[in-house]
């Protein structure tokens, strides 16, 4: 995948609005005809429109609906008219990734297959801390060089917005470098990027036995990084091998003091009531949530916290405890799905694949899965300008070479994304 010549051509050949006779300034930049749409612009279902049309201008959607409902002849409406088949969905939103990192942990994977647990490896100084070592050894350009292909792979399979966390620097410069690389990936690929400050991811070796002192550092770094425009949200790893609820609370207070939204790696390996803590702080999402209690689910529902399911980590860690889906459904907690792309627990480079894993392991319906990777994922990032196909929303969408949207939760692998548009620009084409 490249930011294709296509995109540049589109930009280069698009006449300036004033060149278009008659309707100067009014014509849309693009119009797609004939495909079916899954708009997701509905409380339930796919929001299907058959033999549809989708128009956009200046990066925003101008028309969504049946082809025969267009207000004029296609050529009169848009500069670029494309007739095609397949299905168009909103661009996928990957609302939880750690894709900025260096090296890999394939050797650790081998050890786990031989019986070592994720916790044992972490407690022995491996796991997250081994990636910290690799990241600290990289300058910004090298970190970008290693991370970009992962973002490209996600984009090529339909992701148009990526959340990226820090959390492998665990010192001021390292965290800053990771967040800067996340922003640079956005500039390089034209993809939507949301950054999350996750310095409370693991305790760095130099703070052994001094977790509270480390958390105080984390709290001090935050306003400095925020002042550089590097932080959109704040996260922590609240877990026996991570940080306590009290330490997490301290980080959340620092975030709220800056008006930054919070989210959490919550209740992944044990129930520390992490999801309820997010609810208490009016946060965006509780992520993982395998061990979340009924009481916490109620708190999430009351506070509108999204449950972010991460089936890649569940799969790779060979977990057996499934998140409380029935309870989420019963209480009306919105569910999102993300890759959790990271070198330890989820070396997963396709959000569509995460959708498949969520259907297989958690019995999500493909419809819930697609909602989870679009409209609910946007909500988990606090974004209301994307995640559905609606007039006025960002023209982020994907044309899939499929006969029905359920195929997005069905195929393992394959080459389904025929075209990916971000802000009305085609950035990927097969
Ligand atoms: O979401 N649980 C903590 N964080 C990551 C794993 C990071 C790693 O192992 O490098 C997760 O699973
Ligand atoms: Fe994670």
TrEMBL record:
One of its GO terms (molecular function) is imidazolonepropionase activity. InterPro entries: Amidohydro-rel, HutI, Metal-dep_hydrolase_composite, Metal_Hydrolase. Binds 1 zinc or iron ion per subunit. N-formimidoyl-L-glutamate binds at residues 168, 342, 344. Residues 1-23 are annotated as: Disordered. SUPFAM superfamilies: Composite domain of metallo-dependent hydrolases (SSF51338), Metallo-dependent hydrolases (SSF51556). It is an enzyme of class 3 (hydrolase). Fe(3+) binds at residues 96, 98, 265, 340. It catalyses: 4-imidazolone-5-propanoate + H2O = N-formimidoyl-L-glutamate. Pfam families: Amidohydro_1 (PF01979). Zn(2+) binds at residues 96, 98, 265, 340. It is found in: Cytoplasm. Its EC number is 3.5.2.7. Pathway: Amino-acid degradation; L-histidine degradation into L-glutamate; N-formimidoyl-L-glutamate from L-histidine: step 3/3. 4-imidazolone-5-propanoate binds at residues 105, 168, 201, 268, 345. Keywords: Cytoplasm, Histidine metabolism, Hydrolase, Iron, Metal-binding, Zinc. Belongs to the metallo-dependent hydrolases superfamily. HutI family. Catalyzes the hydrolytic cleavage of the carbon-nitrogen bond in imidazolone-5-propanoate to yield N-formimidoyl-L-glutamate. It is the third step in the universal histidine degradation pathway. NCBIfam families: hutI (TIGR01224). This is Imidazolonepropionase. It comes from Novilysobacter avium. The gene is hutI.
